[in-house]
Design brief:
single chain, alpha+beta, four-stranded antiparallel β-sheet, 20 strands, Jelly Rolls, 419 residues
């Protein structure tokens, strides 16, 4: 017998435990945030137009983001690299009497064995732009050292009036092999890729950069994007390569005598010109008796930048995520993972390179509530990369839409149909 009492003015309708599913969508634009409280679009809190009750699931429905990221920036720890000279062109040994060349030799010899630190401009590069940037930066770094030497050394003050710039470095991109080649028309050099301490002192500490990135064994600095390992890479002559003397400390640095084309003691690219009219001869000696030195990056370049953006929403994260491996006391003394549980709400692919905008839809992951969440009124959102670095959108805006699955209670209804 039913306990439903209709004699009261406030009857209680029994719960029939019957629900119907309703889909609700809310569109969120980053420009709608409180910009005074959240000046950067990578993290903000926003309130919905209404309360969403009895929420069963929440998922990312559609989104649009700008591709305006910097692959190379001080925040990414990948704008600097170092090199040093090992053997210098001596004009006296080659019977070349030139006051400026003698002064350059003296200046370089005064700094021999010491590291030159170069820093490229922040941004996104194509391979040819990177080759030009590195060529100019390498030569500029040496030019500054020589200018300072000529200025403070009375015996070589005369060179200031003759000297314009050091121009012996030439760095090019082989578009067939997709590798960077470093060359010098007279001086033997080494890329000292184990430069972390110098970079930390000169760049990170000087600019007070945040150190909240997870350490990575792959993208550890500019040389890794150029195709190098952490081992120093030493330039070689054509004769050394032809004689298979292409090892330093028993490590081969990507130079295979069978595939390096050498003509007349200099390297050549047979697929075409590096600069118009050079017929593939990209590195030629410019001084009497000089020998060119060059090296090839062991691996192909990697300028693509991040492949995914992770979206975090407080209380809605449902994706477990592995973490970059680091050699620490934890990883070496335990068999536990350093991954993170419920670290993100959505994983968004970045399908294009700067500068552009992309649109996409249909994320598979969703947050499930059992029992349903009583009420959701606002969210706090954060966008980051896998290494923990926040996404820098600059002045670009973005938008996304959330899909809510709601359980709406309904009264039990009985119908009697009389025919």
């Amino acid at each position: 017998m039913s306990s439903f009492n209709t004699s009261t003015t406030h009857p209680l309708i029994p719960n029939s435990n019957q629900y119907y599913i309703e889909k609700k969508f809310v569109s969120i634009h980053s420009e709608d945030r409180d910009i005074l409280k959240y000046p950067n679009a990578d993290e903000f809190e926003i309130e919905f137009p209404q309360d969403y009750l009895n929420v069963q699931t929440v998922k990312l429905s559609t989104w649009t983001f700008p591709a305006n990221y910097n692959v190379f920036s001080p925040e990414n720890y990948n704008v600097s690299m170092t090199f040093k000279f090992l053997t210098l062109y001596n004009p006296g040994e080659n019977g070349y009497a030139d006051p400026l060349t003698e002064a350059i030799f003296a200046g370089l010899y005064n700094y021999i064995g010491k590291e030159y630190l170069i820093t490229i401009e922040t941004g996104f590069y194509n391979p040819d732009q990177m080759a030009t940037e590195l060529t100019n930066k390498f030569n500029e770094g040496v030019t500054k050292i020589l200018t300072d030497f000529f200025t403070i050394t009375p015996a070589y003050n005369y060179a200031l009036a003759l000297f314009t710039s050091y121009d012996r470095f030439k760095i090019v991109y082989n578009s067939v092999g997709q590798r960077m080649w470093f060359g010098n028309t007279a001086d033997k050099f080494e890329l000292t890729n184990n430069y972390i301490n110098l970079f930390t002192t000169e760049i990170v500490a000087a600019q007070c950069l945040r150190k909240d990135l997870l350490r990575s064994t792959s993208n550890w600095g500019l040389p890794s994007y150029l195709g190098f390992t952490r081992c120093p890479a030493t330039s070689l002559t054509a004769a050394e390569i032809e004689n298979n003397a292409n090892t330093v400390n028993n490590i081969i640095f990507g130079i295979d005598p069978d595939i390096v084309n050498i003509v007349g003691g200099v390297p050549r690219f047979f697929y075409g010109d590096v600069t118009p009219g050079d017929n593939g001869f990209w590195l030629l000696p410019t001084l009497p008796g000089a020998i060119v030195y060059f090296l090839q990056a062991p691996a192909k370049i990697n300028f693509m930048g991040p492949a995914y953006i992770y979206m975090e929403i407080d209380g809605l994260n449902c994706i477990d995520e592995t973490s970059p491996y680091t050699l620490t006391q934890f990883t070496t003394h335990t068999n536990q993972t350093n991954g993170r549980v419920n670290s993100a709400f959505a994983k968004i692919a970045v399908p294009t390179t700067p500068i552009s905008q992309w649109f996409d839809s249909e994320q598979a992951p969703f947050k499930y509530f059992n029992p349903p969440a009583e009420r959701i009124r606002k969210i706090k959102c954060k966008l980051r990369y896998h290494n923990g670095q926040k996404v820098n959108f600059g002045l670009f805006e973005y938008s996304f839409m959330l899909e809510f699955t709601l359980l709406r209670p309904q009264n039990e209804r009985k119908y009697i149909i009389v025919m």
